[in-house]
Amino acid sequence: MAPLAEALAAAAALVARVAGGRSLSAELERAGEESPAVARAALADLCYGTLRRYGRSQAIVAALSRRAGAADPLVAALLWCALYALESGRYANYTVVDQAARACTALQRAGAKGYVNALLRGFLRARPMIGARLAADPVANYQHPDWWISRVRAAYPSEWQTVLAAGNEHPPMCLRVNRRCEAVDAYLARLAAEGIAARRIGAAALLLDKPVPVDRLPGYADGEVSVQDAGAQRAAGLLDLRAGQRVLDACAAPGGKAAHALETADVALTALDVDAARCADVTRNLARLGLSADVRTADCSAPETWWDGAAFDRILADVPCSASGVARRHPDIKWLRRATDIAAFAARQARILGALWRTLAPGGKLLYVSCSVFPEENGAVIDAFVARTPGACRAPLADGAPAQLLPGPEHDGFFFALLEKPA
Predict the structure, then answer these.
(1) Contact 257, 248 (CB under 8 A)
(2) pLDDT, tens digit (0-9, with 9 covering 90-100), for 377-389
(3) What sign does the dihedral 408-410-415-420 (CA atoms) show?
(4) Which of 11, 13, 81, 314 is a Cys-bridge partner for 247, taking CB atoms 3.0 to 4.6 Å apart?
């Protein structure tokens, strides 16, 4: 089978599973193991691109379909992937139409060839008319579920369209230079020597003009640099770390913020995560950087199962959340999340805060972080916690930047709140 037909078939099978509730990253990992003949880059591009435009593709199929064939999950997913391929501009139109029809056989849907061919050709003929029709459909136009659009619009009346547009873009690739190994400007010069264009945007952050595979990054294998979003890099600076402190990273996986803390100061760090496999990721990431921490598989909201009673000077609570600020990195999130999930996340975040507060030393600081843009998971959680917790005080952020970072060209969306415990 031709490479594009093979990639379309593999992408359609994967996207159909994601539409059924599976995780995109987990399915991509499995597909790479099961289908080594399919180029992983092409498969990833088709899957990510399709899911970023999921609402639009669904609307196109609904507008053009004159039969029930699209009710077949595999056929529907194939059409979504093919529509993305057509609109991506990476392939000739006739090639996509032909290869999508061929992919039907690989999916054991040979009877759908005519339907797939006709719908894609119909889209090419009617594209101007369909474009105007989709512009009037918020879900198709903004590429987010209706409830998500409503929440962002209410929270950011003047910026909501920019926030939604950012959620559909390719994310930036940012590096964190390990300043224990090399000065940031010196590493920037090494990138330039390798033909990798970048610019400095933070204390240790370098933003690449274009993403590159990590094996192209000089010194990556030796721990001289890591890939970490510039917004995420803000956490270590806000913690006010000093040598000798006891520090807890309560939801540590995959370990980027823990590693940055250890690169920043000689602290005694405990890293927790509820998932053993993700704890293994933390250990591997620290080992690559030549760093060490006490990594434990534990539920941070149940200190009685892991805490030895010795209080922490600093706590990083990078809480589980909707991940609405990083949706462009995980486009399946937009379609798998439900409006009711937000209240459930907020309740869990409140439990985590209450549990961790007991482990914080008098005079200590707790940094609350989420990768959400929904206020219900952010400021509302902090305000409620401060109101019900004697002595809890929200401190100003040392860098002077807003608590809420909205996703943009240089970073993803994050929220930060620093809480201080009275001495």
Answers:
(1) no
(2) 999 999 999 999 9
(3) negative
(4) 314
Closest to 337 in 3D by CA, of 325, 353, 347, 349: 325
**C-alpha–C-alpha distance, residues 252 and 391, integer Å:** 27
Rounded to whole angstroms, what are the CA distances from 142 to 7, 52, 148, 196, 360? 27, 10, 10, 33, 42
Angle between helical axes of 113-135 and 93-106 (0-180°, round to 10): 130
For 305-345, what is each residue's pLDDT tens digit?
999 999 999 999 999 999 999 999 999 999 999 999 999 99
The pLDDT-based confidence of 67 (bands split at 50, 70, 90) is low
82 in Cβ contact with 96 (< 8 Å): yes
Please tell me which residue in 47, 251, 371, 393 is annotated as part of the active site.
371
Pick the closest to residue 7 from 73, 71, 90 (CA basis).
Answer: 90
Spatial CA neighbour of 391 closest among 346, 417, 348, 361: 361
pTM for the full predicted model: 0.93
**Per-residue 3-state assignment (H helix, E strand, C coil) for 333-384:** HHHHCCCCHHHHHHHHHHHHHHHHHCCEEEEEEEEEEECCCCHHHCHHHHHH
Query: Would you state the pLDDT for residue 70?
Result: 57
Q: Which residues of 313-340 are buried (b: 16+ CB within 10 A; e: fewer)?
A: bbbbbbbbbbbbbbbbbbbbbbbbbeee
263-314 pLDDT, tens digit per residue, is: 999 999 999 999 999 999 999 999 999 999 999 999 999 999 999 999 999 9
Q: Is 371 a catalytic residue?
A: yes
